[in-house]
Task: inverse folding
């Protein structure tokens, strides 16, 4: 789990970009958490605090035209892929300017402009959509690579196996990104699955496999790059198992260590491996980043966040009479 | 009727061939249309409805599926979101129960939840099995499960012409359309234009005119109802017979107008009666035409138990034209002896053919 | 009422606690009863309905499930065929869509197809979500999909006492019973006997008496209907109010008898109106009580689109007591100004509380 | 694929029993095929001609109390487990004396007396039932081992993965018997699945794996014995991949080589490996069986078959008024 966090393959600019992107997602979700108690974001939220490395590492190797599908925990994926921040915050506030016009809430984020195809709140249900996107790309002769993000719980859904079998059989350009944060809601993975390497899934369905430390964004970035290159080259699909950890409660914005479902010290151990802190330290040690740059990042991000929340506050609610619209295309 | 259609020579083909023809012409005119199904490319070609497509369009557009209905339904939805227009086919309605989550949560809702920006243009063809003792898990007519879901459109053709026209309409539609094909309707022969003319998915069609009673039927039961209605007409009782065709969105204006005139309503559908299609028709029509009703309505559907395999049990399971004629006559209030005569006459012809196959020459596939 | 119940001290608890209590007592008295669910053993204990069971009965009988609904439903059915009596719980109705095939083909039919020799005694608890912008995939009330299937029994409690009694009845039943729990009913407070008295799964209960109109409600909408009916009573309009409770098998005798008296019918359920529960009630009642109807019936249900997340849209999505009172008053034929007054009075109290949570103090889980 | 057909582990009595059981199933299905054209068995039939080795090899190591679940192709499993022949033939004729009272037809065979728990016509749908039976056995403290028979098509259904994951996680006494006959209806496995060893499935779900030649009944018998012993001992579930081949059409009783979906010569090659012919030859060569014994087997079986068909002919149809009975338990 301790891959060298700075490698020769990845250059400094990329490393700074990876850092900035993770920091931005963290700050945005911290602000959501801070404001959630005000109860003006009246929809369930599933924060990715602690898991930014997976989203950023993977999306950093994708093109704008590469479609991704996400889950109930979609903020980080949406943002890492370049999804519009204002549209996201507005959606959380149920405003007409939200990416779904307020109809979906935090679990349905999507942004066609950057190919965030869809986020789906039903566990596992999003995975075949990515395989379908890969099929469409192949049928239309596009060189897009589709990515399915899903968790260790989704891994138990039969539909994920069905989708992987199809992708493996047709050698489709898709990458299955399994973010193993060790829990489905409050239930640890060992109560739900047998003990065995998760990558075994790849052999069953004819996929290539990569297994990386999800809290080492550079490692994720490089593993994802290999998977995406294979897919774009036409060599076929890959499974990317990413080990990571959720710092906050499953649904909502609070700490939940007091509930006692996490073994003592587990959270602290993982917090010590925070993907952002680790990269910041490495960049500092390597002299690749100075305080001025850090401050610049922070203040740019802060400004962007204020802007998005102000815009959401000012935005109108969807008009009641529009509720009936767009049932049929 | 557009020229293409009017000019084409009259031909008699059955609904299975009509479905094949609609699919082929849609695939020719739009290369985003493709077929997915278990058996789509096999020697039987889904009861002939996909026969020959592989040869013309190749494996890339006529895709054989693994036995993984939920998975490939989700894959179809993903492809549709990216601009493709898949046609999915399941050889039995029951197999699609595995894909309910994808259909009800993703296909039906993604256009709405995206504020109208996402489109999921796909057609899901489901076949209702009947006969040859295939039993409880290969014979369900579960249209209610789909018709109840906002965001889906649901059609049930009862003729070769409608099978072609409604399928073309479904393929042109920018949203998910469920087309439920009764296996016995596949054998329905009829005039079908050679031209590819999509029918709007916009409601019922009147098949017979009359002022004594309004009858609304769906799918294969429309054919049984036709026998009953024509027998009644011969007996001087004239029925306004509608084939419902489109279950969602549900357009009942013409039927309500008819009931305002006849004051009587009988529904005949292929599913279980309780919480079935007939319930919605009766509830809505009696609400709208309340003041005009002259007699209590009557619903004809399947009894409240699974489909038994044994012939001796299946015989009493499926309502047939004599029973339909009897119920209509009762609602109209014909004298008991007239009703008995009618039912008897109809029975001798109807029950002369085997009751567990669509017609004597039938040898499967089931 | 049996002694156990009569002797027990009166207590006020909510439906979630009542469900927990019913489960615990059934597990104590029958060691074949066990619980399966995602979250069954977690700190939240499925909205408190399984809280503490792990401590009392252990992992062997309170089983945490993987996220694999179709699989563990089939596993439950297999265990039931071998004599066990599983209670399955899904935190949302939507998750059970993945298990439709197992429930509709195996659970519902295996007793019938085996000529009565197989038994599949299982209870499937489904929770209907509402509020807090949880949106289209966490808020569906799809009881029609289950109530339409012969072989299943379907119950929907609206009170704490019924939640306990019907669950005990469901657990005692030798076949598959679907119990649909509206999340907001979990908060319904009421007197619940300490004794474990199973209620027969045999139909509706009259909650209010009156000769002006018959109202049939289900689940949480029964609570909204009660507000409406009591407001009408204050205004001198007396309603016969029924809580349907058991959707299948459907016993409408008492309701039909009531409508024969009132000549008026309004239904209020938690699902989409089209092809919904109200359709069957209206169709059957109007057929049986045809001659007695004085006014057109009225159905109140959800509009024909998915549940929007935004509060401004959800507000107009869910019918509330003022609307129910208005519709009833219209059916009864009260003068327009009386109706307006009623609705206004009711609105000021009803809409004083937040519209997207069951009561002001509510902080989830949703 | 050429394991020594006679081994030291299995004794002569067992070998003769294996042979007799396969021969009996073959003769019964041949008779069904011969009479099916008369159209008095008015239900779909899925014959196992050619696949008897799998059913017989596995069931030969089971106790009467060990529950099995089968599929649409259930005749061989039902008979190998000791299911009542008269009740089966009557069921195919839709008679009241059938195992389902005529309600199920050929795809719903079951026999509580010998723990043929159920046969399910929906592909893959039977597999979790076996896991549930294993769970019940564990909960009740019984030492039963449950067996799920399924095909290479069912292998694609997500529910099979879900069931296997659960069995692997809880170490349940269940054996998953995958009969790979290379086809799902008319579609060859390579059009439906990626190229990889089917046993990979075992590692994904924490199962032990056995892979055997299904047309060598002795090999199946011994592999199944190992799996069942592990399960009964409490060591956990196994996957048993059995390679075999269907000689007749998928549904119905006719030859179908003319349809051309089988590669030229494939059928002939597999017919040459007929499990019954192979064992008969081996037994003869080893002098373990003589013509007299063979003739005795044939005539006993023939008599049993005539009896069953006569009984079915004479049996009453279920009375129409009973159709409404037993909807609710
Ligand atoms: C089919 C289905 N079952 C159950 C749920 C309830 N649920 C919501 S999130 C979640 C946890 C899923 O865990 P995982 O896939 O690991 O994602 P994570 O929350 O850890 O990111 C569950 C069970 C659901 N949304 N869909
Ligand atoms: C869920 C489902 N999908 C499709 C079918 C149609 N069907 C019946 S048998 C069969 C083939 C299954 O192949 P396999 O599992 O290998 O069994 P085999 O017929 O080869 O014994 C199919 C697809 C079905 N019965 N159930
Ligand atoms: Mg997780
Ligand atoms: Mg096979």
Result:
């Amino acid at each position: 789990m301790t891959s060298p966090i700075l490698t020769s393959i990845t250059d400094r600019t990329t490393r700074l970009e990876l850092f900035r992107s993770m920091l931005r997602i963290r700050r945005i979700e911290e602000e959501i958490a801070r404001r959630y108690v005000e109860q003006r974001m009246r929809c369930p939220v599933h924060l990715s605090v602690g898991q930014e490395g997976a989203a950023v590492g993977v999306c950093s190797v994708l093109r704008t035209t590469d479609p991704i599908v996400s889950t109930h925990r979609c903020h980080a994926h949406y943002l890492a892929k370049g999804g519009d921040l204002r549209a996201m915050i507005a959606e959380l506030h149920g405003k007409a300017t939200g990416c779904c016009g307020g109809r979906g809430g935090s679990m349905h984020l999507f942004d066609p402009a950057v190919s965030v195809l869809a986020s789906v709140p039903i566990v596992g249900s999003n995975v075949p959509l990515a395989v379908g996107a890969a099929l469409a790309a192949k049928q239309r002769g596009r060189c897009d690579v589709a990515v399915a993000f899903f968790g260790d719980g989704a891994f138990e859904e039969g539909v994920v196996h069905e989708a992987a079998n199809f992708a493996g059989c047709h050698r489709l350009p898709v990458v299955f990104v399994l973010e193993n944060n060790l829990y489905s809601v409050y239930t640890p993975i060992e109560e739900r699955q047998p003990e065995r390497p998760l990558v075994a899934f790849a052999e069953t369905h004819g996929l290539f496999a990569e297994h990386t430390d999800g809290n080492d964004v550079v490692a994720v970035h490089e593993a994802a790059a290999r998977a995406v290159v294979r897919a774009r080259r036409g060599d076929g699909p890959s499974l990317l198992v990413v080990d990571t950890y959720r710092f906050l409660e499953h649904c909502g914005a609070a700490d939940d260590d007091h509930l006692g479902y996490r073994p003592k010290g587990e959270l602290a151990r993982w917090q010590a491996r925070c993907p952002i802190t680790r990269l910041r330290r490495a960049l500092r040690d390597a002299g690749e980043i100075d305080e001025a740059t850090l401050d610049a990042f922070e203040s740019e991000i802060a400004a962007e966040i204020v802007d998005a929340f102000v815009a959401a506050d000012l935005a109108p609610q969807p008009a009641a009479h529009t509720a009936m619209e767009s049932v049929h295309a | 009727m557009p020229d293409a259609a009017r000019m084409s020579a009259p031909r008699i083909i059955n609904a299975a061939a009509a479905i094949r023809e609609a699919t082929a012409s849609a695939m020719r005119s739009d290369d985003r249309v493709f077929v997915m199904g278990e058996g789509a490319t096999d020697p039987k070609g889904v009861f002939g409805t996909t026969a020959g497509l592989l040869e013309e369009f190749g494996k890339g557009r006529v895709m054989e599926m693994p036995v993984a209905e939920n998975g490939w339904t989700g894959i179809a939805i993903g492809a549709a979101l990216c601009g493709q227009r898949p046609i999915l086919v399941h050889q039995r309605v029951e197999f699609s129960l595995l894909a309910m989550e994808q259909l009800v949560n993703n296909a039906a809702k993604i256009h709405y939840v995206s504020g109208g920006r996402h489109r999921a243009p796909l057609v899901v063809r489901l076949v209702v099995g009947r006969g040859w003792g295939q039993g409880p898990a290969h014979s369900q007519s579960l249209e209610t499960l789909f018709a109840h879901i906002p965001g889906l459109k649901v059609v049930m053709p009862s003729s070769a012409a409608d099978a072609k026209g409604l399928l073309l309409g479904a393929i042109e539609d920018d949203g998910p359309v469920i087309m439920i094909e009764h296996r016995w309707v596949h054998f329905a022969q009829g005039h079908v234009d050679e031209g590819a003319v999509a029918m709007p998915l916009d409601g019922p069609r009147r098949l017979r005119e009359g002022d004594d009673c309004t009858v609304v039927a769906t799918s294969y039961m429309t054919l049984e109802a036709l026998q009953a209605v024509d027998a009644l007409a011969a007996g001087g009782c004239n029925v306004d017979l509608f084939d419902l065709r489109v279950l969602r969105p549900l357009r009942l204006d013409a039927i309500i107008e008819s009931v305002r005139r006849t004051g009587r309503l009988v529904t005949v559908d292929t599913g279980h009666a309780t919480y079935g299609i007939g319930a919605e028709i009766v509830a809505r029509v009696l609400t709208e035409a309340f003041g005009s009703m002259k007699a209590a309505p009557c619903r004809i559907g399947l009894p409240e138990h699974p489909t038994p395999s044994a012939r001796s049990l299946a015989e009493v399971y499926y309502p047939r034209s004599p029973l339909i004629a009897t119920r209509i006559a009762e609602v109209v209030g014909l004298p008991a002896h007239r009703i008995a005569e009618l039912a008897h006459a109809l029975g001798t012809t109807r029950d002369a053919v085997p009751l567990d196959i669509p017609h004597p020459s039938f040898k499967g596939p089931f």
Residues 12-36 of chain D form the longest helix (25 residues).
